[in-house]
Design goal:
The complex is a heterodimer of chains A (about 325) and B (about 325). By secondary structure, chain A is an alpha/beta fold. Chain A contains 12 helices and 12 strands. Chain B is of the alpha/beta class. Chain B is globular. Classes of the chains: A alpha/beta (about 325), B alpha/beta (about 325). The interface between A and B is large, with 47 and 43 residues.
Chain lengths: ~325, ~325
């Protein structure tokens, strides 16, 4: 990999204080980086901390109850955690854009779509409303919304789910961001529309030469779009590597189990799925050792007491596991 | 010869009446959620129904259980036409047909103990003689779905999504039904938990010989659990076939696009796949297109497709498709 590092997250810890005094370690010592122009996936199940990681990157954690307690988030060399709120606002929606899961609730129902798409340009590029509108129509055309000049005057409720997500993408791309973070961008959409939207997102980020962080629970989507993958479990990255490393030779027991638990569309015969027994742990009461240990079939005594950290398997492929597992 | 079909649906239509003049529609307009479909299910088999939102898959499931009134057609269940039976006459039949819902959070009464939720069908149908038998049946069911006896003494909110779905399955199976409609039973669950529930449903079918109508939008899961798969679009069946036939040799352009839209969890396969990217979105069922319901999005549409609606016909053996190309 010879491209430049665009985003570097180091030892990020985001905790949430609960009413009963319990501290939920939603993101606990997470480090990863994103290079210019690449697509990095963060994959995990609910409660694994993938969305909180994304929100932390943009400093969008509601405080209270949440707080980034440690770590650094370096974007183009600047630690975003050290700058003022005003400076952070100049980055958000400008150099880094975020696309959320729910296109229904992320758009303002009482402002026309064209105006909303143009808003980031008005704010960040100090463009006049009229000019921003023209640019907004171009953007709507770019995300393949038919009849963009007319549709710019419509309101979000007049759009279908897929079209609304296109509007979100147009808004995200408005200021030509260098990094686009999409949190489950197509989970609420139908399969065929999901394919259209993701394809569009990937193509447009490539055209803009932007890097793309894709947060999802869908392993198929990861396999189709990601260059590199970070697998999260209970607030930590348990394995990271290229998509081929992760899918073809997973090394962490959780990743291995996850791969076996999803049915493959192309499998010839019907065979039993291998399920992961038990439940993900309560983030307020994590075991002192490895968080996956209670569900892990390879676990040893050491795993119960000592928490593994990410270590190198081979070039760029890392895992957080004490055991040496070789399964093909 | 004994009839080996548990369910034989002919020409089924279900309509929802639109009330009032909301959105400028005139009174009495109706939405055809299911539009004259015919299919059958054999004893002990799993028929998967797939399609996108609004295709009529859930309506089909509810209609064959007669949880909805139907507009037209016949539903032969276990040898008897139930399409027009009264509620009273349906009641004893309900023991033989059950449903597992999508949302394990909304489907269980939060104020009932889990054991009473599971046991309620026994009481409703008066099938147990005393409280000892009642309890025994519940314990047996808890055990079958992988929950402990003690868990029966708790309330639904104390359980995770996967466990709640087990409770829903226990309730559906306690009367030993012949047919269970599973409406998106795993789509609200995490990937690692989905596999547990799918395996459980598989085991129960082997053990109890129950027939499933498995409704889902996730083709990979449907393919995994089903013997045969039926693809629906805008209230119509567009293709129905044995599972490997459908996946290895899809015929309808919509089935092809649907299969192609689903990413396979393997970067090597994905890198070499051909895509059939579908344009546009599903039209409103209130204003369905003339001719083939799929023609506005179909890359192979011809004049014929715009004028005449294709009927479902067998192309080879049990593989049926509704498309003018075949």
């Amino acid at each position: 990999m010879n491209s430049r590092v665009l985003l570097e997250v180091n030892n990020l810890k985001t905790y949430f204080g609960m009413e009963d005094g319990v501290i939920v370690k939603a993101v606990d010592d997470v480090s990863f980086d994103v290079h210019e122009g690449e697509t990095v996936a963060i994959v995990g199940e609910s409660g694994s901390g993938k969305s909180v990681t994304a929100l932390s990157t943009l400093r969008l954690i509601p405080n209270p109850p949440g707080e980034i307690v440690a770590g650094e988030i370096k974007f183009e060399g600047t630690n975003l955690l050290n700058i003022s709120e005003e400076e952070a606002r100049a980055v958000r929606g400008n150099k880094i854009a975020m696309i959320f899961q729910e296109p229904m609730t992320s758009l303002n129902p009482s402002i026309s779509v064209g105006r909303q798409v143009g808003e980031p340009i008005e704010v960040h590029e100090k463009m006049s409303i009229e000019d921003a509108q023209l640019r907004s129509q171009e953007l709507l055309a770019k995300v393949r919304i038919p009849d963009p000049i007319k549709r710019a005057k419509s309101y979000p409720h007049e759009f279908s789910g897929g079209m609304r997500q296109r509007v979100m993408i147009a808004m995200g791309l408005a200021c030509n961001p260098k990094l686009i973070i999409a949190d489950e961008p197509t989970t609420a959409l139908d399969v065929t529309v999901q394919a259209q939207v993701l394809y569009l997102l990937k193509t447009l980020t490539q055209e803009n030469n932007a890097a793309f962080v894709l947060i999802t629970h869908d392993l198929g989507v990861v396999a189709r779009y990601a260059d590199r993958v970070n697998v999260m479990y209970a607030g930590k990255i348990v394995e990271s590597g290229t998509a081929r490393d992760i899918f073809n030779s997973p090394k962490h027991p959780y990743t291995i189990a996850l791969m076996k638990s999803v049915p493959h569309l192309n499998s010839k015969e019907k065979k039993r799925l291998e399920s992961i027994e038990g439940q993900p742990p309560d983030l307020g009461r994590l075991p002192s050792g490895c968080a996956f240990e209670p569900r892990c079939e390879y676990a040893s005594e050491k795993c119960k007491t000592q928490r593994p950290t990410l270590t190198l398997v081979k070039e760029a492929h890392k895992k957080a596991c004490w055991e040496d597992i070789n399964e093909e | 010869m004994k009839n080996n079909k548990i369910l034989n649906v002919k020409n089924l239509s279900v309509e929802y009446k639109m009330r009032g003049k909301l959105f400028g529609r005139s009174e009495g307009a109706s939405l055809k959620a299911v539009n004259g479909i015919s299919f059958s299910v054999k004893h002990g088999e799993t028929l998967g129904i797939v399609g996108e939102s609004g295709c009529g898959k859930t309506t089909t499931g509810l209609a064959v259980l007669r949880m909805l009134d139907i507009a037209k057609g016949s539903i032969e269940f276990d040898g008897e036409d139930i399409a027009n039976l009264s509620r009273k006459r349906l009641r004893p039949l309900r023991q033989k047909m059950q449903i597992v819902y999508q949302d394990p959070f909304g489907a269980l009464n939060p104020r009932m103990l889990v054991r009473d939720i599971i046991g309620e069908p026994l009481k409703a149908h008066n099938v147990v003689s005393d409280s000892i038998e009642y309890k025994e049946k519940i314990y047996e069911m808890l055990d079958i779905v992988g929950l402990s006896k003690q868990m029966g003494e708790r309330y639904p909110h104390e359980f995770s999504g996967g466990q709640r779905q087990r409770i829903g399955i226990a309730r559906a199976l306690i009367l030993n039904p012949k047919l269970v409609v599973c409406d998106e039973p795993v789509s609200a669950l995490d990937v690692s938990i989905q596999a547990q529930i799918i395996n459980l449903l598989d085991e129960l079918q082997e053990r109890l010989g129950v027939t499933y109508l498995f409704i889902a939008h996730d083709l990979a899961i449907v393919q995994h659990i089903s013997h045969r798969v039926m693809v629906m679009y805008l209230g119509n069946i567009v293709e129905i076939a044995e599972r490997s036939q459908l996946y290895n040799n899809p015929k309808h352009p919509y089935t092809k696009a649907l299969l192609s839209a689903i990413p396979v969890p393997s970067p090597d396969i994905e890198a070499n796949r051909e895509f059939v990217m579908l344009e546009g979105e599903v039209p409103s069922p209130l204003d369905p297109p003339k001719g083939c319901p799929f023609h506005p999005r179909c890359s192979e549409a011809r004049v014929d497709c715009r004028e005449n609606k294709p009927v479902l016909k067998n192309s080879e053996g049990s593989h049926a498709v509704a498309c003018h190309l075949y």
